[in-house]
Each structure stands twice: as structure tokens, then as C-alpha cells.
Structure to design on (517 residues):
């Protein structure tokens, strides 16, 4: 693949030996690591691993939202000391505010960051169009389906055009048809902007379908056990089975999981 | 269909209430109960009409005190509830004091207030505030404590300041519980103001009740109580309307 093509406008993420231990004393729980990350500007990297291995923890450490127990993180070459705000995060379980309508949830970014209102509103409207949310603007989260809530949360992460995007199982609550569509939409959005993406998933299809590189994690406490570059042309088709290479990549990840004892057939 | 259901919902209790008044009226007439013990509804209703200017004058003064006292209790109630919920140092410092004052029968502070501050409005507002403060504070603590901690991840990732986090995340998240405290407090405030007006006042519904009692004017007492009750109903309706306008998440 042409390396020039991967030169994005995003931030770089470097992590060295990061470890997370939740709690102290007898309650201390080693949840993650040590792990290393080297994510280039504009790269799309997936983190895949079994549930509870520390994927969400990784995203909290890398974004500065949880203190790192050991090791350190650098964003764009600068040591991470406080939560990064030049970021869009799709939190697991969407984390929408139930007292705000869909559009108000997205416009929270504009309000807090004090960005131009009209400009951000038109960006939000464009995202609602792309994410098939037209008509849902004035609905409250409890009036939306699980899939719609997750798409609103994706719009909230993208609307301010951050240089870095972290998505924690963003398609978890979607049905198979929506998943394929939104995977494609996300890929197109990413191709247009080339921001750095750290994509957390437990779906092999999503990881291979979207990423430049897939990092495979072991069971808790998670470590990165394998790194797989995905050399497939973009945009990737809805039906990944069209590529014989897809099956090869998928098989590779399955085999690692099998070896790690993630599966028990 | 929906309209008819709404009309029925409003009219059925109203009819029932009217029926009760009719029974009351009939009972007073049939058993010839003396008016200074239990006046017939028709008597004190007429009294409300006759004394309308007087009732309105004193009613307004009482309403004003209720609102001032309510605000004087509610604002610090929310603020202290926030501090206690968010900062363990505040909890350690303030909770013992709060528990002690909560245990105190606060209405008995009224004579003390009188000694300290005299007959002005200030001691009345202070006492009303002190009493309405507690339900609001207790529910605010619960509200701020029950915020999903992950919402702080969201606010941090947007770079929100302390004030932005408070106004855009914390306060609206805790609003349903805060309002359940406010709904209790507004009703309590009505009673407290009227009682305080008994003790030291030359105006207000409480004063009017006391003066009517001295004059054995039972129908005027009833007329005043009806006005007091209307003020209570109106103010708690107002609090609920504000809640409906500001708190969408309670509606599902
Ligand atoms: N705040 C916390 N306190 C204690 N343990 C936690 C906390 N958050 C997560 N954990 C534990 O850390 C492990 C990794 O969690 P998480 O990063 O959420 O995993 P994943 O996202 O891969 O499913 C799990 O065992 C989880 O129970
Ligand atoms: Mg997770």
C-alpha cells in the first residue's frame, strides 16, 4: 500500500508499557498490560480481544481519562498529563445524556468548546444525514432505538472534527444490516479526513473490514499478543467474503484466540 | 378520545369535591351546627367574596414570604447538597452539623429569631429557608451522588470547565431528585410562613387567622384557610410546571 496515502492530519499515539491496576491494597485488580502502542497520524487501528481483557481501560488510559498505573503515553510527541480534549470518543453503551435531545447531545460539543453555533449545527445536520438519523433530531435518547442511540453518539464524537477518534464497541447495539452500512459510512468518513482512529471491537469482521492494523489482545489482564496489518484495498465492500484474503485474516485472528483459550469448542 | 379522557380526569375530582361541600352544607343546616363552630361552605365562600380585598392584600404578603423563604432554602440546599455529594471533606465537615440541625424542631427557633431580628420580614424568611432547606439538600445529595461516574469521562473529554460540568452535566442529571425535594419544600414553606406569622406579624394570612380567632370569627378563619390552601395549590403547581419545562427525563 502507498505509505503516502496513510499520511493523515490526525494525532500520533505512543504508549510505552502502560499498565492499569484498579483499586489499592487487597482490592487491587490488575486490569491491563503492560502494553505498547504506536499509532501513526491518520492510521486506523483496531484493538480486538475478549470481553473484560482491558480494551475500554486502554482507551481510558490513552485519552487521559483514567490515571496510568505504570508506563507513559505521548500524544503527538507530548507526554499525556491530563485528559485530552482534542478528541472524539464514542463511549461503550453510547453514554448519551437523557435530558438532552439527539441534536442537543451532539451540540454539547459546540456548547462546551464554544465553537460557532451555525457552523456546528450544519456539521451536525450533515452527520445526521450520513448516519441515517434525519427525523430523530428532537427525540430524547429513551425515544430512540439502541442502534440510533449509538449513531447519535458517533455523531457527537465526530461533529467537532477532532484529530483523534476513539470508538469503544460503537456498533455493539446494531443489527447486522446496520452494522455493515455504518461500517462503510465510517470508512468513507475516515477516508475523507484521515484522522487517527483507535477502534475497539470484539468483532473480527469489523476489525478486518475497517483497519490498517489490528492489535489482538489476550485475556485479562490484557496484553497485545499479535499485530496484523490488513492490506486490503479501500473502500472495502459490504460483503467481505468477496476477498479471499479476508478469510485468511479472519482465520489468523480466530487461530490466535483459539490458542489463547478464548474459545472453548 | 384523549381530550375526553383529560376532561374526565379534571372533572371527576371537581365533582366529587363539590359533592363533599354539598354534604357539608346539608349537614350544617340539618343539624343546626352553630356557625362559630363549623360554618357552612356557603357562609365562608360568601365571606371570601366580601373580604376579597383584605384577603388578597394579606395573601400577597404571605405568598411573597413563601417564595422568598423557599428560594432562601432551596438555593443553599442545592449548593450544599452538591458540595456534600462531591467533596468528602465537605461531607465530613458539614454532615454532623446538618444532622444536628435536622434533628432540631426548627419551628421552636421562632421566638429566638424574634428576639434577634424583631418583627421584620427577615426572621420569617430565615426560618422558612431553614426549614425548606433540608428536604432540598437531602434530595440534592442523593441526586448528585447518583450521577453515572462515566458522565465525567464525557465532560473531561470535551475539555469542560468546572462550571460547564456543573451546569451542563451535573445539575440537569440531578434535577429529577432535586425537584422531588423542591415539591416537598414548597408545601412545607406555606405552613411555616403561616405559623411564623402567628408569632410575630401584623400582616399576612397567619396574622389574619389569629385576629379572626380573637374575634371568634370562625367563618373568616375558614375563608383565610381556603385562600392559604389555594396559594399552596398554586405554588406547588408552579413548581411542577417548572419541573415539566426543565426536566425532560422524568417523563418516561
Ligand atoms: N473502575 C474499575 N474498577 C475496578 N475494576 C474495573 C474498573 N473498570 C474495569 N474494571 C475491570 O477491569 C477489567 C477490564 O475492563 P474493561 O477495560 O472494561 O474490559 P473490556 O472493555 O475489554 O471488556 C475487567 O475485569 C473489569 O471488571
Ligand atoms: Mg469495554
Amino acid at each position: 500500500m502507498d505509505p503516502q496515502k496513510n499520511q493523515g492530519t490526525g494525532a500520533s499515539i505512543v504508549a510505552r508499557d502502560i499498565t492499569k491496576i484498579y483499586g489499592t491494597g487487597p482490592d487491587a485488580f490488575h486490569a491491563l498490560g503492560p502494553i505498547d502502542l504506536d499509532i501513526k497520524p491518520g492510521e486506523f487501528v483496531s484493538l480486538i480481544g475478549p470481553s473484560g481483557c482491558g480494551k475500554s481501560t486502554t482507551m481510558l488510559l490513552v485519552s487521559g481519562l483514567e490515571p496510568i498505573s505504570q508506563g507513559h503515553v505521548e500524544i503527538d510527541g507530548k507526554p499525556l498529563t491530563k485528559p485530552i480534549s482534542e478528541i472524539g470518543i464514542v463511549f461503550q453503551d453510547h453514554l448519551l445524556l437523557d435530558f438532552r435531545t439527539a441534536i442537543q447531545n451532539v451540540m454539547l460539543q459546540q456548547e462546551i468548546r464554544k465553537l460557532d453555533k451555525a457552523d456546528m449545527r450544519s456539521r451536525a445536520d450533515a452527520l445526521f444525514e450520513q448516519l441515517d438519523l434525519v427525523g430523530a433530531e428532537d427525540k430524547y435518547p429513551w425515544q430512540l432505538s439502541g442502534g440510533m442511540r449509538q449513531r447519535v453518539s458517533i455523531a457527537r464524537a465526530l461533529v467537532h472534527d477532532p484529530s483523534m477518534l476513539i470508538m469503544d464497541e460503537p456498533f455493539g447495539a446494531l443489527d447486522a444490516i446496520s452494522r455493515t452500512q455504518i461500517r462503510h459510512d465510517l470508512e468513507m468518513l475516515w477516508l475523507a479526513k484521515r484522522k487517527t482512529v483507535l477502534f475497539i471491537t470484539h468483532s473480527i469482521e469489523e476489525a478486518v473490514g475497517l483497519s490498517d492494523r489490528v492489535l489482538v489482545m489476550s485475556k485479562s489482564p490484557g496484553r497485545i499478543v499479535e499485530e496484523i496489518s490488513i492490506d486490503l484495498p479501500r473502500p472495502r465492500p459490504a460483503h467481505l467474503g468477496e476477498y479471499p484474503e479476508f478469510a485468511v485474516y479472519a482465520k489468523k485472528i480466530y487461530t490466535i484466540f483459539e490458542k489463547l483459550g478464548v474459545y472453548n469448542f | 378520545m384523549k381530550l375526553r379522557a383529560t376532561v374526565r380526569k379534571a372533572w371527576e375530582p371537581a365533582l366529587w369535591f363539590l359533592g363533599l361541600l354539598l354534604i357539608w352544607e346539608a349537614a350544617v343546616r340539618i343539624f343546626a351546627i352553630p356557625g362559630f363552630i363549623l360554618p357552612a361552605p356557603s357562609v365562608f365562600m360568601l365571606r371570601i367574596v366580601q373580604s376579597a380585598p383584605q384577603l388578597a392584600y394579606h395573601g400577597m404578603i404571605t405568598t411573597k414570604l413563601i417564595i422568598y423563604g423557599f428560594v432562601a432554602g432551596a438555593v443553599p440546599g442545592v449548593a450544599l447538597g452538591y458540595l456534600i455529594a462531591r467533596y468528602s471533606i465537605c461531607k465530613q465537615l458539614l454532615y454532623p452539623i446538618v444532622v444536628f440541625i435536622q434533628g432540631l424542631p426548627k419551628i421552636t427557633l421562632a421566638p429566638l429569631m424574634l428576639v434577634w431580628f424583631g418583627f421584620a420580614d427577615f426572621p420569617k424568611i430565615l426560618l422558612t429557608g431553614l426549614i425548606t432547606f433540608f428536604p432540598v439538600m437531602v434530595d440534592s445529595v442523593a441526586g448528585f451522588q447518583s450521577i453515572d461516574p462515566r458522565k465525567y469521562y464525557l465532560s473531561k473529554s470535551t475539555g469542560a470547565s468546572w462550571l460547564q460540568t456543573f451546569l451542563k452535566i451535573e445539575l440537569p442529571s440531578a434535577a429529577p431528585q432535586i425537584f422531588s425535594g423542591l415539591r416537598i419544600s414548597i408545601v412545607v414553606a406555606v405552613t411555616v410562613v403561616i405559623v411564623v406569622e402567628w408569632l410575630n406579624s401584623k400582616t399576612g394570612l397567619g396574622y389574619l387567622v389569629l385576629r379572626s380567632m380573637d374575634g371568634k370569627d370562625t367563618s373568616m378563619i375558614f375563608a383565610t384557610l381556603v385562600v392559604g390552601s389555594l396559594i399552596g395549590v398554586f405554588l406547588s403547581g408552579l413548581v411542577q410546571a417548572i419541573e415539566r419545562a426543565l426536566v425532560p427525563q422524568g417523563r418516561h
User: Anything to note?
Assistant: The longest helix of chain B spans residues 162-199. The two ends of chain B are 22 Å apart (CA to CA).
